[in-house]
Amino acid sequence: MKALIPAAGQGTRLYPHTHTKPKAMVRLAGKPILGHILSSLAETPIEEVVIVVGGSMQDQITEYATELFGDAFEFTFVEQERAEGLGHSIYQAESAVRGEPVLIALGDMLFENGYKQFLDAHDDCRPTDGSIGVKRVENPEHYGVVGTNDRGTIEQLVEKPSEPISDLAISGIYIVEATGMLFDALQMLVEEDIRGADAEYQLTDAFQRMVEQDCDLTTFTVENWYDCGRPETLLDANRVLLNRLETNQSNGLEESVVVPPVDFGAGVEIVNSVVGPNVSIDDGVQVENSLVRDSIVGRNAELLGVNLEVSIVGDNTTVRGKPDHLDIGANSSIQL
Q1: Boundaries of each Nucleotidyl transferase domain copy (predicted)?
Q2: For residue 89, what are the CA distances in angstroms to 79, 94, 114, 225?
Q3: In whole angstroms, how large is the CA radius of gyration of the chain?
Q4: Which residues on neighbouring strands pair with residue 192, listed in sequence order?
Q5: b/e string for 94-109 if b means 16 or more Cβ within 10 A?
Q6: What is the CATH number of domain 248-335?
Q7: How many angstroms separate the CA atoms of 261 and 278, rounded?
């Protein structure tokens, strides 16, 4: 089985941070989102990973994946030249995936317990043409949803329905055995120009086409997931992962207090400050005379005399003064 990671999205909900890096390279809890995905996949039997990239910053993804995970996986990179939706992104990987089973892991979604549990759940569903992770939610109109029969077989899939057919939300993890039928369905959507309400080709519509072609699709339960494409949920994921993962310490503490969990990059200097809990600090950061908690601080940032909480600070940013909540992109300088 291969893994397929669509990571070509523009990440508009994470502006300004994604002006200077792909969404999958936004950092939390010690590494980029993509790093957490690949680390989790490394705990499974999967050895081949296909990543869909796009845009002018795709080299950041290819270089990171091959340099840090080249010993764990054989990588194939395919390009999505135009951002036309998740279905279109998956369709670009046809030559690398068709005919083989695949686990599709969205490039901005993290799961609390990793991917091995999903492969085990899929095995429990066999024989099946594919299985989709779902979770019961209170507001299904905001998600793709599935309707199932008494045997748990999927009978209908709808993307963000105004009148939900169920409360089973698609959680962004898919395991497909019948990849030929998946790509046939995606090809039909593209050739007939069938788009969703947002004018994009939807993966949900492709699965609906598979159901109409008598594919046997089932579901498995996902307990918790984090959509890292939004600042608030990115910070939620940072908190959870910092509490679950082993964090790095800093040798650059001077008259300062660290309240765990905190993850420090290399070359970090903390002077006369209190840092933590739930803080991720990238390489080369300088913090002086500050209080920092529940935040993500980018590479080579400077925090000088600030009281920072529930904030995301971009790379190469200098913040002076006493702000409380910030969402600042890279290469910025702010004095308050």
Answers
A1: 2-242
A2: 8, 10, 23, 21
A3: 21
A4: none
A5: bebbeeeebbbbbbbb
A6: 2.160.10.10
A7: 5
Q: Place 46 in a pLDDT band, splitting at 50, 70 and 90.
A: very high
Q: Which two tokens stand for residue 225?
A: 């997931």
- Confidence (pLDDT) at 333: 46
Task: Read off φ and ψ for residue 159, nearest 5 degrees.
Answer: -90, 120
One-character DSSP codes across 121-171 = HHHHH-S-SEEEEEEE-S-GGGSEEEEE-TTSBEEEEEES-SS-S-SEEEE
**Residue 116 burial class via C-beta count within 10 angstroms: exposed 0-12, middle 13-18, buried 19 and up:** middle
Listed by start position, the domains of the chain span: 2-233, 248-335
Asked whether the CA dihedral 134, 140, 144, 145 is positive or negative, the reply is positive
CB 89 within 8 A of CB 52: yes
Q: How confident is the model at residue 336 (pLDDT cuts 50, 70, 90)?
A: very low
Residue with the bigger pLDDT between 145 and 150: it is: 145
- Give yes or no for residue 264 having a pLDDT over 70: yes
Q: What does DSSP say about strands 130-136 and 168-176: parallel, antiparallel, or unpaired?
A: antiparallel
Containing H/E element for 75?
A: strand 74-79
* Residue 330, pLDDT score: 56
Q: Which of 14-18, 231-235, 256-260 has the lowest mean pLDDT?
A: 14-18
SS (H, E, C) 255-275: CCEECCCEEECCCCEEECCEE
pTM, to two decimals: 0.90
Q: Which residue type does 286 have? A: Q
Domain covering 2-233, topology: Spore Coat Polysaccharide Biosynthesis Protein SpsA; Chain A (3.90.550)
- Give the type of residue at 93: A
Single-letter residue type at 36: H
